């Protein structure tokens, strides 16, 4: 199972760009970088506090709930997600690999400790309770590599799968986009569920185009 931004968009999760593509005259892609954080951590935290405030107002939808039901019925179930909103966990999914991190987790830049904190406003310079080091959002920024352990587990899950659903992804963000191809190469049946066709639609066994909140629940109907 692989999910992307499309499944959360139906919950009202906004993109992290403002309506005009900017946030306070800054491009989000310029703020979500280790270089931006090193130069001005207070500005980056202001941006992420804004994101937390927006995402904290939404909740999971019917597609998230259907995947919880599917996990209950399938003994070997792994949900790989590119989303950082935490909605799969909020819905009740258990075996989740958040390969791009989680917006509601913070990581100490000194000791590396990771903790969950759902406070919508972390302040201008939040610090670690253990060592006093500066905290950062526990998400993968542009220019950073994915956690090799998480990525390895995701690749392995794709390779041993018999059926893989790819929901709400653009199929362009690597290395997540390659996971469906890994599953196909290993002999799995792969179904794409997305509002529009993607660059991988032609290689899928099934390509279902429409809202995930309408299509995915049908898969678990009695």
Account of the protein in words:
32% of the residues lie in helices and 18% in strands. The chain is of the alpha/beta class. It has one domain (2-109, 143-220): Rossmann fold, CATH 3.40.50. The strands form two sheets. A six-stranded parallel sheet has the order 3-2-1-7-8-9. Strands 5-4-6 form a three-stranded antiparallel sheet, covered by helices on one side. Strand 2 (79-81), helix 6 (87-91) and strand 3 form a beta-alpha-beta unit. Helix 7 runs parallel beside helix 8 (179-185). It starts with a strand and ends in a 7-residue tail after the last helix.
Distance between the termini: 20 Å
Q: Helix coverage percent of residues?
A: 25-40%
Number of strands: 9
CATH topology-level fold name: Rossmann fold
Q: What characteristic shape results from the CA principal axes?
A: globular
CATH H level, superfamily name: TPP-binding domain
CATH class designation: Alpha Beta
Average residue-wise pLDDT: 93
What is the structural class? alpha/beta
Order of strands in the sheet with most strands: 3-2-1-7-8-9
Following the backbone from N to C, one meets helices and strands in this order, namely EHHHHHEHEEEEHEHEEH
Q: Please report the number of helical segments.
A: 9
């Amino acid at each position: 199972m692989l999910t992307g931004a499309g499944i959360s968009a139906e919950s009202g999760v906004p993109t992290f760009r403002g309506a005009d593509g900017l946030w306070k005259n800054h491009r989000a892609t310029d703020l979500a970088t280790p270089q931006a954080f090193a130069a001005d951590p207070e500005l980056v935290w202001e941006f992420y506090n804004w994101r937390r405030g927006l995402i904290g107002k939404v909740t999971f939808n019917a597609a998230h709930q259907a995947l919880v039901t599917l996990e209950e019925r399938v003994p070997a179930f792994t949900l790989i997600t590119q989303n950082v909103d935490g909605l799969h966990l909020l819905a009740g999914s258990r075996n989740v690999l958040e390969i791009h991190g989680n917006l509601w987790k913070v990581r100490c830049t000194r000791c590396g400790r990771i903790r969950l904190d759902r406070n919508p406003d972390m302040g201008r310079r939040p610090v670690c309770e253990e060592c006093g080091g500066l905290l950062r959002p526990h998400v993968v920024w542009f220019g950073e590599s994915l956690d090799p352990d998480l990525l390895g587990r995701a690749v392995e899950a794709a390779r041993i799968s018999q059926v893989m659903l790819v929901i709400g992804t653009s199929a362009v963000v690597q290395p997540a986009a390659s996971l469906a191809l890994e599953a196909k190469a290993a002999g799995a049946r792969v179904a794409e569920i997305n509002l529009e066709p993607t660059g991988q639609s032609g290689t899928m066994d099934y390509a279902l185009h429409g809202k995930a909140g309408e299509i995915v629940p049908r898969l678990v109907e009695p």
